[in-house]
Design brief:
- It contains two helices and four strands; from the N terminus they run ββαββα.
- A hairpin with a 2-residue loop joins strand 3 and strand 4.
- It has 82 residues and is of the alpha+beta class.
- The longest helix is centred in the last third of the chain and has 11 residues.
């Protein structure tokens, strides 16, 4: 498929058909790179551990943040300050 490069303000752009965006899972934002002389669009990478802090807070609020196996403590655990 050929695409027309159009002037958009001080830049230029290409209209991407919705079926292509849906196929790639692109919505809102995308990562754009140049690889082997080709323009590549990808869904943004999720941040490693994204949402972990919020999930831990939610577990603590529910009182569900206790040790699963408290009988398997590590040596010197009682000396650590949390």
């Amino acid at each position: 498929m050929k695409a027309i490069i159009r002037k958009m303000g001080n830049s230029q752009g290409v209209i991407i058909p919705k079926p292509m965006l849906d196929q790639l899972g692109l919505e809102g934002t995308a990562e754009m790179t140049v690889e082997n002389d080709a323009l590549v669009l990808r869904p943004p990478r999720r941040m490693v551990r994204a949402g972990w802090a919020e999930a831990a807070d939610a577990l603590a609020e529910e009182g569900d943040d206790t040790l699963l196996w408290p009988e398997f403590a590590n040596q010197d655990d009682d000396t650590f300050r949390w």
